Amino acid sequence: MEAPVDRRFHFRCNPRRLKMKFASLPSILSVQRCLILSDAAMENVVDGVVKGPVAVIRHGVLGTQNVAGKDKDIKNPQRTESAKTDPDATGMQVSFSMSTILLKNALFACNDQNFRKSIDDFVERFADSGELREVCNRYARNILNGRWLWRNRILGQKITVSVKCGEEREIVQDATRRPSDTFGDYTEQEKELGGLLFKSLTEVPLKFKVSAMIDFGMKGSFEVFPSQNYVDNKPEGFARSLYKRNMINRDDLIRLMRDENPDTFMKDIIYMGDAYIRDQKIGNAIRTIDTWYEGGDDARPIPVEPKGANIETNEVKRENNSLFGLLLDLDSLTPGVDRPNPDAMFVLANLVRGFLAGEKNEKSESSGKAGRRKERKPNQPDLLEENA
Fold first, then answer.
1. Coil, strand or helix at 201
2. Residue 83 belongs to some domain of the structure
3. Same domain as 292, residue 209
4. Residue 310 vs residue 364, higher pLDDT
5. What's CA 154's distance to the chain center, in Å?
6. What is the DSSP string of 38-59?
7. 15-28 residue pLDDT tens
């Protein structure tokens, strides 16, 4: 009688060590993010001095509608929120904090010890590699070029980004002079920050303070761009909600909106809170380093995502070379000789990013609730969550 075959993985012999190729992912696989980011505060700068937070105000606007027919009313009255700098502002400061955890601690949960060892071996194999250094240099470029400022970059006649690590060390660079869509030819500042990121992922966790000073080149109250909130089923006539902190008390807001006294009427313009850029949006910007997908060398970089999902083009760039497929044959990835291994850099970047994935086995599938069952292709991992 033949012995039962373990279909979880098969072995491939190698003179140096035993390699393993898995048939499927573990049912539990969780990798925590290695870069922990704060929200970014937006503050007014008056004649070079920081003068308090940028305000988010709620107000009414009379827009237009692009509708056909002469009998249609083209007026479109709405209530919306805007973030405006102080009338005396000559610029704006945007700043956030960042800390790290060691890459070897990224794997949070895994219920397959062979798979866990494969990931641990991969991290050890690339702990002092050119692949990890390149990933760190790309992160450093996207921090120092101010990509994480998003639309606010267009406001600056000059943008200076500074990164402090500890009390004394500070790296400063003119963000307007650095590319945002290509990598390589790194400046000394980018190499220095890349080196600190490398150290913080492999030796000792570090803390960073990142600030961008945006010089408008003129004085005035300008609209700036914090994150927007997604609001499901918005009330009719409400245009958008902005991300803010130190918000107005809800009871006070209701009282203002109900006030019909002409002597105290204030609902024409209401101070809603302080403008911020969400940590998720910052993380998305600085991890826009993936040019390793098919055709990526000749295209714009996309954010590191397990399947290469790109909202900008509404495409999945890695349908045939996803993280999940690479994880199944992780032992075959080795540091490059002539140039860094692109697949290994993609896996490393995902370990820094963090993700939660796994495959349901037959036992867990049969014991689950009928309403939660769904058909899927064999060996196709279920993406349970994407940490941004």
1. helix
2. yes
3. yes
4. 310
5. 20
6. --EEEEEEETTEEEEEPEEEEE
7. 344 567 888 889 99
Residue 319 is assigned to a structural domain of this protein:
yes
Distance of CA 386 to the CA centre of its chain: 10
Residue 102 tokens, joined: 């060691």
Cα 223 to Cα 22, 57, 207, distances in angstroms: 53, 11, 31
The residue whose two tokens read 């692949």 is 131
pLDDT tens column, 326-355 = 999 999 999 998 899 999 999 999 999 999
Q: Which pLDDT score, from 0 to 100, does residue 231 have?
A: 85
- For residues 148 and 96, membership in a common domain is answered with yes
Our count of domains for the chain comes to 2
Phi, psi for residue 6 in degrees, rounded to 5: -85, 110
Residues 155 and 204 in one domain: yes
Q: Are residues 33 and 143 in the same domain?
A: yes
In a domain, 186, yes or no: yes
- Nearest CA to 234 among 61, 78, 17? 78
Contact between 145 and 212 under an 8 Å Cβ cutoff? The reply is: no
CA–CA dist 195, 189 (Å, integer): 10
Shared domain for 234 and 329, answered yes or no, is no
Residue 66, both tokens: 């692009």
Reading the block at residue 330, the tokens are: 């992780």
| Ramachandran bin of 325, using left for φ above 0, alpha for ψ from -120 to 50, beta for the remaining angles | alpha
Please give the residue range of the domain that contains residue 158: 29-40+90-217+278-357
The DSSP output letter for 13 is: -
Residues 316 and 183 in one domain: yes
